[in-house]
Write a structure and sequence with these properties.
It is a single chain. With about 250 residues, the chain is of the alpha/beta class. The protein contains eleven helices and seven strands. It has a single domain, classed as 3-Layer(aba) Sandwich (Rossmann fold), CATH 3.40.50.300. The chain is globular. Helix content is about 50%, strand content about 15%. It has a seven-stranded parallel beta sheet, with helices on both faces. The structure holds guanosine-5'-diphosphate and magnesium ion.
C-alpha cells in the first residue's frame, strides 16, 4: 500500500505532540488506518501511545548517562542517533500496512530540520512525505513574530524539500478578533501595513516573493477542530494531481 509520511514540525511547545494525538483520534473516528511514530527521545507525558517509539531504543536520559553529556548535548546526540537507527525504525513501521504515517518530531525543531540526520530519515522513510508546520499562536500573534515563524518554515522547506502545510495551532487560546487579524496577514497589503520599517519590511518582501505568505489552517488539538482541513490538504497534495515538484507547502 502507498504510505504517506506526515511530519509534524514546529518550535518547542508549539503543540506537535498534541496535534499528532488529535489528528490520530480524528482519523480513528473516520476509520482511516494510520500509524503513529514518535521520533522525540525526550518526550514525556505523551497524550497518545505511539505505535512505533524511538524511546524504546534510547531516551535523552539514557544518552546523558551513557555518554556523560548534559541535556543539550544529549538532544544533539539523540538527533544523530536517530539517523543511525532509522533503518530499523522503518522496518517497524513497515509491519503496519497503512496509508498514513504520523510522525512526531523532536521538541526543538532545529534538531530535526537543521541536522543531516533528518535528510537520512526522510530518504529512508520514503519519498511520499510532507510536513504539517505549526505556527505557535503566542509567537504568531505579533506581526514580527508571524514573519519570524514564516522564516522558520522557509528554512524547514529549504532543508527538507517536502511540501509544507502551515497550521496555526492552539487556536482555542486566541480570541476571535486575534484569529481574524492573523488570518488577514496572508493578505500582503494588510501585513505590510502592520510591520515596522527597515529590516522587517525587507524580509516581508522576501517571503512574499517566495510565495511563502500563506493563510495557516486554524486548528485546536484541545478542542479537536481543523483536523478535516489538514486531511483535505493531504488529499490535495498526494491525490489531487498537483505537480509535486512545484508544491512547497
Ligand atoms: N490550549 C491548548 N493547549 C495546547 C494545545 N495543543 C497543545 N497544547 C499545550 O501546549 C503545550 C505543548 O504541547 P506539545 O504538544 O507537547 O508541544 P510540542 O513540544 O510541540 O510537542 C502542552 O502544555 C499542551 O498541553 C491546544 O490545541 N490548545
Ligand atoms: Mg512533542
Amino acid at each position: 500500500m502507498r504510505k504517506v509520511n506526515i511530519y509534524f514540525i514546529g518550535t518547542a511547545g508549539s503543540g506537535k505532540t498534541h496535534l499528532v494525538a488529535a489528528f490520530s483520534e480524528w482519523l480513528d473516528f473516520h476509520q482511516i488506518d494510520h500509524v503513529t511514530v514518535n521520533l522525540d527521545p525526550g518526550s514525556e507525558n505523551m497524550p497518545y501511545s505511539p505505535d512505533v517509539d524511538v524511546r524504546e531504543r534510547f531516551t535523552l536520559e539514557d544518552i546523558m548517562l551513557n555518554y556523560g553529556v548534559g541535556p543539550n548535548g544529549a538532544q544533539i546526540l539523540g538527533a544523530d542517533l536517530l539517523g543511525a537507527e532509522i533503518d530499523e525504525i522503518k522496518e517497524e513501521i513497515d509491519e503496519y500496512d497503512v496509508p498514513y504515517v504520523l510522525i512526531d518530531t523532536p521538541g526543538q525543531m532545529e534538531l530535526f530540520t537543521l541536522r543531516r540526520s533528518s535528510e537520512i530519515v526522510i530518504n529512508v522513510l520514503g519519498k511520499d512525505s510532507m510536513a504539517v508546520f505549526l505556527f505557535d499562536p503566542v509567537i504568531s500573534k505579533q506581526p514580527d513574530g508571524f514573519v519570524s515563524v514564516t522564516f522558520l518554515m522557509a528554512s524547514s522547506i529549504f532543508r527538507l524539500r517536502i511540501p509544507h502545510v502551515p497550521v496555526l495551532s492552539k487556536c482555542d487560546l486566541l480570541g476571535e478578533r486575534e484569529l481574524e487579524r492573523i488570518e488577514r496577514w496572508s493578505e500582503p497589503d494588510f501585513l505590510y501595513s502592520e510591520l515596522g520599517t527597515g529590516v522587517e519590511r525587507d524580509l516581508f518582501h522576501v517571503i512574499r516573493e517566495a510565495g511563502l505568505l500563506q493563510k495557516p489552517i486554524p486548528v485546536s488539538a484541545k478542542e479537536g477542530y481543523g483536523m478535516e482541513d489538514i486531511y483535505d490538504r493531504i488529499q490535495e497534495i498526494f491525490y489531487g494531481g498537483e505537480d509535486m515538484n512545484r508544491i512547497l507547502y
